[in-house]
Amino acid sequence: MATDCQACGTSVNMPEKGYVIVRPTQDLENWLDSIQLDLIQKEDMIYIYYYQSFQSLLPTLESLLDKDLHDHWLHLTDEDRSYSFPITIQHLFERLTNPELAEIIYQGNFMSFLQPIIHMQNGEIYGYEALLRTKDQEVSPGELFPFAQRAGLHSMLDQKAREEAVKAKAQHIPEGQKCFINFLPSTIYVPEYCLSHTFHIVSKYNVNPEDLVFEVVETEEITNVKHLQDIFRTYQNYGMHVALDDVGTGYSTIEMFHLLHPHIVKIDRSYIQDCHLSAEKQSFLNEVIHRAKQLNIKLLAEGIETKGEFDWLHEAGIDYGQGYYIGKPDQEPCKEPIPL
Questions:
Q1: PROSITE patterns, from UniProt (predicted)?
Q2: Is 287 helix (H, G, I), strand (E, B) or coil?
Q3: Are 149 and 42 in a shared domain?
Q4: Do residues 285 and 315 make contact, with C-beta atoms less than 8 angstroms apart?
Q5: Domain ranges, residue 80
Q6: Whether 173 and 267 share a structural domain
Q7: Which residues pair with 86 in a beta bridge?
Q8: Which one has a higher pLDDT value, 334 or 198?
C-alpha cells in the first residue's frame, strides 16, 4: 500500500530485508559510529547498508536514538531497490518494537461504539458520538493513539477511525440524527485534498452530510487558527457541521467562539462535574451560555454523570447533553428518548 502524500504516513509496505540508505546532513561521526550494519556502497555522501531482518535494524536504531537523531530520515528499499520507503528513525523504531499495535492500525482492527446525545429540554435523541474501540479488548484507545503519534501513524489511524464512524452511522443511526466524529487537525495538511477520502466514504455509505458533526479533538494546541478555520470551512462547504471540543480547558477558550464560529461547542467535563454544587463552575457556564446565544452556537455538556448535574444544566438552558447518566457507549446504541 502506498500513498501520494508521504506526510500522511499511510504507507506500510516496509521491506523485511534489503537496504538502508542514509544521507547524514550533520553529525556525520555520530551517524557512522551508530550504524551496526554492513556498508555496501558509499557515493556523494550517500551511505547504503544491508539489513537481513527488522530485528537486525534495532541495535542501529537504538544507537541513533541515543545520539538524539529521532527526526532524521532513513530510506528502506527492497533487495531489487525497486522502490524507496522513507521514514524517520523514531517512527521506524516504534513500529518495529510495537508490531502488534502497528498491525491493529494497518488492518483497521477496531470499531465504533456509539454514545447517545440528547436534547436537554425533552430527552429525545439528538445523535451519537462515535468512540473508537479496538477489537482486541486488551488494547485501549488510550494506548493506541499515543503509539500512533509516536510511530507516525496518527494520520492513518485518524482516517480509518473516521471511516469506521461513518460506517457506524450508516448501519445504526437513523437519518436525521447526528453522528459526532472526532478528528485531529494535525493530520490534515491541505484540507481539500486530505479530506477527500472522508467525503468519498460519506458518499460510499450514502450518508447525508448534514447528519455529520466533525469535532476537533483538543489534545492538540490550537496554534494555527487560520488552518483550523480552513478545515472547518472545508467541512461546511460539503454540508457538514463542525464542533469545538473541551471548551474551558487548554487552548479551547471562549474567545475561539468568535474566531471559529462552530455550529456546536462541547463544554469540558471538568466544568460539568458537580456543577450544581459549585458557584464558580456555574458562573463560567452562565458566561458560556450567554456568549453562545449571542453567536447562535449550540452548547453540549459532556460527562453528565448525576441527576443533580443534569437538573442544573436543564434549568440553565444547555441545548444538548451527553454522559453516563444519559447513556454509555455501546455497539448497539439506545434509540429511545431518555426519560427526564
A1: EAL
A2: helix
A3: no
A4: no
A5: 6-97
A6: yes
A7: 75
A8: 198
